[in-house]
Amino acid sequence: MGFGKEKGCGKWMSPYIGTLLAVIVFGCFFGVYSILAEARDAAAEENLSLKEETGGCADAVSLEEEIAGCVDAMSLEEKVAGLFIITPEQLTGVETAIRAGDVTRQALEHYPVGGLVYFAKNIRSPSQLKEMLSNTASYSRYPLFLGVDEEGGTVARVADRLDLENVGSMADIGMTKDASKAYEAGARIGTYLREYGFNLDFAPVADVLTDPDNTVIGNRSFGSDPDVVSKMVAAAVKGLRENGVSACVKHFPGHGNTSGDSHDGQVETDRSFGQMREAEFLPFLAGIEAGADMVMAGHISAPGLTGGDMLPASVNEEIITGILREELGYQGIVITDAMNMSAITRYYTADEAAVMALKAGVDMILMPEDFVRAYEGVLEAVRSGTIDEARIEDSLKRIYRVKYAQTAAWTEDMGRIG
User: Is the CA virtual torsion 401, 403, 406, 410 positive or negative?
Assistant: First the structure.
């Protein structure tokens, strides 16, 4: 069995989580699958001891069973809320969130979302940022993604607000053709993000700049050479990951050959599957191989991939499930780009877009135009059978694999420090 609802799948910084993870790892290698009786007995004794301490929360003999039990114990409302990453303003209704107190606590009790994303306006000082993120994490029944766009260069919410050294544009790093520079940038960003309490960076940009006139991506890309971009993306992902921050490569299937901005309306690429397989897809595959925990699906229409279908990738089953999942073999978390962009809001209501994205194979919805409407729309879709509840649970399991791994890494670090 998994954690009961009152346990919330384990508090993010639970005092028992280190021991729990030790038991889980021990069990995985020496429990059910071991032929060594001595090791099996030792695992059973340690597991029994922990069960007595935690009231029976360590029944599972593997991480997968623990995650499954956790998800199974959640109500439908909790499951659906866990698929959203929203702004603190969308959660609480305040105009600008710069602290987390009772309003945040109560909002997270009502809507236990999967994560929150912060922007420059939420950042005032190092101490304010640390306290806000720490409090927010402590209020949640479930582990949270606390994310930010921190690419470097022109997109550096934290570095610019706190007067930290900006690692510079990815274009400049790409021009060096030295992947160690990309690693250093990722490591530097990961170090300060984790220091302040973030565990997710919506970076690096994995787009290949195949259209030199593309100003939307511009110097946010490592360049126009797919091989160079791939090496840089992989190195940046490793730099983030090795410093305790999950990387999200973006914007699949590739934003480097588009002429428009999805903030303003529909964006299209005319690249064929064959062309993208030889260029645009390569950095995403490299980032995934390097350990990226998420792939962000852009609001990009790609009729060359879909036989003329103009549905944006973020809500397009043929692109998300057919290409990213099945053709490229990616089985991790897929998140949409911000769903409050005009490429979505001009054509779909918040609930329509959220349901379409989940049916397409997406796991997490980022910043819907109207969070409550999107949340209620997904709830209704599950209740009516439009979306199978098992489909929602599959996404939550992907999400919790990452969150549990983050907790294990944190526990290991605390053990070294202690």
Answer: negative
Collapsed DSSP state (helix, strand, coil) of residue 399 = helix
Looking at residue 43, its pLDDT comes to 36
Distance set, CA 112 to CA 2, 92, 104, 355, 381 (Å):
18, 12, 11, 19, 19
How confident is the model at residue 51, as a pLDDT? 35
Q: Which backbone phi and psi does 275 adopt, to 5 degrees? A: -65, -45
What residues in the chain have per-residue pLDDT under 70? 1-61, 259-265, 410-418
Distance (Å, rounded) from C-alpha 63 to C-alpha 84? 23
DSSP string for residues in 308-374: T---BGGG-HIIIIIIIIIIS---SEEEESPTTSHHHHTT--HHHHHHHHHHHT--BEES-SSHHHH
Per the CB < 8 A criterion, the answer to whether 170 and 221 are in contact is yes
pLDDT score for 215: 79
Q: With the C-alpha atoms ordered 359, 365, 370, 372, is the resulting torsion angle positive or negative?
A: positive
Give this prediction's pTM.
0.85
pLDDT of residue 266: 77
Tokens representing 118 are 């912060």
Residue in the structure block whose two tokens are 């852009």:
298
CA-nearest of 270, 279, 313, 300 to 209 is 279
Task: Give CA separation, 71 vs 3, 148, 399, in Å.
Answer: 9, 26, 10
pLDDT digits (tens, 9 = 90+) for 311-341: 999 999 999 999 999 999 999 999 999 999 9
- State residue 313 phi and psi, 5-degree precision: -55, -35
pLDDT at 415: 54
Question: Using CA atoms, how far apart are residues 31 and 286, in angstroms rounded to an integer?
Answer: 34
Using CA atoms, how far residue 321 sits from 82, 332, 351, 359, 382, in Å, is: 21, 12, 20, 9, 19
Q: What is the pLDDT of residue 267?
A: 85
pLDDT at 260: 61
Cα dist from 31 to 23, 28, 42, 91, 305, whole Å: 10, 6, 9, 42, 46
Q: Report DSSP letters for 268-286, one per residue.
A: E----HHHHHHTTHHHHHH
Largest Cα separation within the chain, whole Å, is 66
